[in-house]
Structures are given as C-alpha cells and as structure tokens.
Amino acid sequence: MFNLIRNVASYATQENYQVVVDAYSRVAQAVTSSPFKVEKISASKLNSLAKCDESMLFSLYSERCSRPTFFVIYVPRSLLIFRSSDKSDADTIRLALSSLTRLINALEKGPEKAFIPNIERLRISVEKEQSFKDIHHASACNFGDAIARMCSTGDAQAIINEASLDGRFPLQIAADNDNEEALRVLVHFGADVSKQDSKLRNVLHYAAQKSPELLKLLKSSPKFATAMDQIDENGMSPLCLAIEASQIKCVKLLLDSGCSVGPFPAGPLAFILTLAHSADALPTLVDTIAEKSPHFLFERINGTSTILHEKLDRVLLYHILEGVARNLDVNVRDGLHQTPLHCAVKRGDLPQAIALLSFRADPNAMDQNGDTALHIAAQQGSLPIVKLLLCFNSSATAKNRRGFTAADIAKQSSTPHKKEIMECIQLMATPPHHPTPAPEHVISDLMQGRALSRISAMPSEQRDQIINCLSLDGGGIKGLVLIQILLHIENELGYPIMEHFKWLAGTSTGAIIALALARGDSLRTCQSLYLRLKDEIFVGKRPYSESTIEHFLQKHFGTEPTMANLNRRKVMVTATCIRTTVPELKLYRSYRLPLNIVQNEALGYSDPEDCVIWRCARYSSAAPTFFPPKDGIVDGGLIANNPTLDLLNDIHTYNAACQYSGHKEADIGCILSVGTGQSPATDVNCSTFSLTAPTSINEGISMIRDIINLKNILIEQITSSDGECVKRARSWAHDQKIAFFRLSPPLSRHVELDEMQNETIVDLLWDTEKYLRTTAHGQVQSLLAYLKAL
User: Fold this and answer.
1) Would you identify the CATH topology of the domain 200-329?
2) Radius of gyration of the chain (CA)
3) Choice among 59, 394, 471, 508 that is catalytic
4) Superfamily assignment of 343-430 in CATH?
5) Which CATH class is domain 450-677+721-789?
6) Which of 463, 491, 569, 634 could make an SS bond with 622 (beta carbons 3.0 to 4.6 A apart)?
7) Whole-model pTM?
C-alpha cells in the first residue's frame, strides 16, 4: 500500500497526494479498529448518523447511505457498543442491553475507569446469552460489586435465586465462568450451594470442573457436605465431573472433604476415570483417588468388565499395572468371558495389546466361543496384531468351539492382508526349519564342536563350576530384539535362562538390560521397561531430554544402589570418555581383580562402590545426537557396540590375575553374544569418493553426495556389531575352547534407535522370531542342548 502511495506521489500534485494519504488512513483505521471494541464516539460522528429510535439509553443509529452500517450507541456516554451491517442483529443487541437497566445503573456507580471495559464484557455476554437477566449477566461477567449493589437495593433472595431460561441460577453461571468474585458475593448474600438447576447440577458440579479456588470458597457454606454428593441428570457427582475435567486439585479437595467415592449411577470411579479429558493427568488422578479408595480400580463396570477391558491411554495402563493396581489380574474376565486382551484386539488397539502382553496377558485365553485373541485378530485382518500375538507365543494351532484354527478363520475372511496372515500363522504352526550348514561355517562349526565336546567330557562336579557369559550389543529401542531372543530361548528351556549366565557385558541399550538382569529383573520386566521407554523418553526432538532419561533410570534402578550391590553376577558395561581428542573406552564393573587396591587402580578396575548403577546405565546409553553427554562420557557404542571382545579381554585379564595371586581361575563354558539385528544393506551411489576441489556444479553435487555416503559408511563401521568383530570374538573364544553362540537377526527394514511406531516395533519382533525359527534354529537347538546338559 505504501509503495502504491509513493508511486502516485511521483506524478500527483501535493493536493491529490494528500487525498490519497487521507483515504489510506481511513482504510487503515477501518481495518485495525475492531468492530467489537467499545469506544467513545465523537459528537460530529454521532451527528452524521441517522437515529433509528427514540431510546435515550441504548439507541440504534445508521449511516446515511444505500448500504449502511448500523451502530448501537450508549447515549448517556456516547459510547459505540456494537456495529453490524445487519439491522436485525444490531437491534437485537440494543433491545437486550436496554432491558438491563438495573445492571447498567449498578455499573454506572462503579469506578469511572472500569465502565468501558465492563460494558464491553457485558456486550460480549449479551451476544452469547441474549435471554439472560441482569443478575445472570453480572454473574457471567464477574461483576461482584454490581451484584452487591443490586442485592443491597432490591430483594436479595429473589435476585440470587432467579433462574435463567436454560434453568441455571446465578451461582451456577458464576462457577461455570470461573468467576470467583461473583461467587463470593452471591454466597455472602445467602445463595444456596445445594440448589440444583434444570440439569440437577448444583454449583459444585460447575466449580469442580474449573478450579480448586472456587471449591475452597464454597466449602465454608453450611450445605457444602450435602452438595458435594448430589447427583446430576447424567448420574455424575461433582467428584465425577472433576475427574472428567482432569482437575486433580479439585479431586483431591473433594476427597479430602469426605465426598462419596461411589459407585455412582453413571458408573464406578474406574469407569469415570476413562472419561478424563487429559491423558497426561491420568496417572496423578489414579494416585490421588487411590489414596482415599485403594481398591477403586478393582471395581466392576456395568457389573461385568473392569477398567482393563476399557480403551485406556497406554501411559495410564502401564501406571496401573506396574503401580497402584499391580495385583489386578491382567487376565480378568468380563461377562462374555473375554480378557482385556480380547477387547483390545477387537478394537484393533495395537498399543494396548502390546502393553497387556508385556504384563503377561495370556494370548491363549479363550472367550465363551473358544476364540483366542489370535482368532479375533485373524478374523479382523489385523496383520500387526497377528504378528504381535505370535511373537508372544499365541498358539497357531488352537481351535475354537467350532473347531476352527486362526488360519481357518483367516482363510474364510476377505481382508486385504489375508495371504500374509495365513503365511505368518503357518510359519508358527509347522515345525521349525533346519537350514543346510553353510560352507563358510565349516571351520567354525568344527571348532564349536571341539569346545562343546570339552565341556560334555567333564565330570558333573566340574561342569557345575562352569561360568557362562552373556554379551548384549547396543542399538537403542532395538534392545527389544535382545529381549525377544532371550525370551525365545527361555520359553524353550522352560525355566529362567539367567540361571545359566553369571557374567554379563552390555553396551548402551544392552548395558541397561544387562544391569537389569544382573539385579534380578525378569525378561518380561525388561520387556515392559523397554516398551515404556520409547513412550516416555523419545518425546519431542533430538537430542532428547536429559532429565527425562535420568528420571526413568533412577525410577527403575534407584538413586543409591551401586555396582557393588550386583554381587550375584559379574556385570560389565561399556562407555566412551570424550574428554580428550582420542576417545577412551571406559568399563564399569561390579567386580575387581583378585589383586590389591593399587594394582586394581593401575589396571583400570575402579571400586564398584563408586559406580552408581543408574549413572553407569546413563553413561553407556548417551548416544551422540540422541542424548547429551554425561560428565564427558557418551555411549560405549562408539568404541564397543558389540562388547564381546571386551568381555573376552576382561576374562583373560581376570584369569591372569588369578594365576598371579593364586586364586582359582574362571572356567568359561560358553559365550552367548546377542545382537540387535542387521539392517538390510543399501547400495551406495558414489563412484570415486574424490574430495578434490570440484570444477563444475555436477562435480560439486557429486562430491557432497560422496561426503554424505562416506560419513554414513564411517558411522556404520565405527558402530558395527557384526561382521569382522564377531569373527574375531568367535576365533578367540574357540582358541580357548569356549563355545561361542552369536544370534542377531537380519531385519526387513532399517530401524532407527529411537523408533516410535508400534507397527515397526512389531515387525522388529517378528523378524527376530522368524529368524529364530529358520536361519538360527540349529544354533538355538545347540545352545539349548548345551544348557540343559549342565
């Protein structure tokens, strides 16, 4: 616009130029002046308008033109209240305002500076509720002083008990608008807090949805105790509405005041909780209610189902199952003999199905028709849920009451993923595949056989002294692969796998799992921990919150326990010190060498008492770009993403120290090295990797592409967990006649360290399970035979 004016000025006379500027000013004023702003109108402007009525309070004026704008003017003060191109709209506002003489008079007696803001608020209230009377608008606008003046000069009881056309009283209107001052004045003049409106709601029903300050104000009323347990037309008490509105402080205040905890006509508190608007507030709401009603989560909804059968936010579900209601049966039945897992699968609720299974929901439980969750998933054609259930040992051969397996049901369906679902079920229903030994494994198989023969030839008392070692790679959320592999082996064994492993090593995500297993956590506990980890820690953008991951680790491991407390097993985790230009591998151990303190310190074996567990986990998992460094230390994956070689080195050093000091050496039977999966290889489109100065745009683009590819190759090589490092570890172990098992599945897609998508997580687990039943089946059977023979 200003450029246009300057262009006009280049050829216009000064007079014409001024005309243009004035026109622009008027347009700008019209644009910036709000049509809803109350403002003083000049006498000249008022005289230019045509008066449309005889009113001397609120009057209608219009412009003198063919398409006029209509104005509502407050005549005593010449205030422009409202404007509209629709005469009917303007006149409706004028009439509504003109009927509020008592309120206008009360506002006129207030502070001079407050009148215009107050009249503007009143105008807004009139636009919303044109049927309101003086007291209702005063309550809606929080005009406490005006209410006091009206009650002091009239029949106070009649005024404060006047119902609006929608059936509400001034008290309810004030609370509904969170107007503390108006509420205070109304209560002062005797408003009854137990008086119910047309929806059977008293003022507490409205206040409980707004703020605890309103409830505190009302608590002094003699009828507060009666009001807080009254039920509205929907069967809800004030407590129910406070829960629904996620008003935690209001819930606490009502509970502390002794309100009823139900059950209510609308349902028990467990059901009311599912109505809460804010998912973030749910865990705190649960804790607050549980303080006064510890068993509320165990209440039956509609006499049959429980809160676990309802659709729940996954954070709340984890909070319930691991905290306030850890004794709640995750396989509890409803009226149709369905478990919560059945209901989650019927809803197609993958996140809730994952959560329930991680807390040991039975995937083979049958409903009244004999259907398992797998039957339902196959019928609905939910491929991710079918894969998930199969990964959690859902029977692929179970038949329902009609004699149908899940595969039979899938075959009869017409869902888009019918073929894939049948293939998945068939894989689990048939005996595992025994692959033909690969030619390149001839030598390693020979050496593996010799190592196993050495152990099988031992007397039983000597075999009892054997120590088996477990090495866990890094890989972020792919730590779920580590857990899935160990769970598969454990299921085949029929008892906890950790009974066989007394020396553990881990990097990054593997470090967290190793520390958890070393302190006695079950694999299912670790699995639940990791499924929560992705939802709680990978929030927002990278790098993720330092305080969040530290709180998460402190919550699980505690703030005080040290590595010295992990005395049932030897455990070692890796980290990388980046305080110098040459990164240094740091090892945090639960043990020291059988040497004196000076010798241990010289060899880098720090006192386990000085190593707090959560800090060790934090150091090892501080992946660059994902989490900030901690005390100059980052993820051990930069140097030892596969810690097997470092474990072998530590074993060698430990046994050498034992020889030196005359102690008994550790006799290692096997090393189980578990990886987080191998991403599919991708082609690198670069020809030269030349970093010489480009001579053309195309060469420049090619060089940038080469640099990016070179960077990716270097990162892959630095953090490599497979390939040559596994060959070296296997050779070293076999040279010592130690059996070596390496399990790391090929993945169907690249999975990020901070992967959040549940479908991708399920595919990750499925790739693992498929690998264990095909390519790795022979190795798994060999490991099982070895362990069972011990």
Assistant:
1) 1.25.40
2) 37
3) 508
4) Ankyrin repeat-containing domain (1.25.40.20)
5) alpha beta
6) 634
7) 0.80
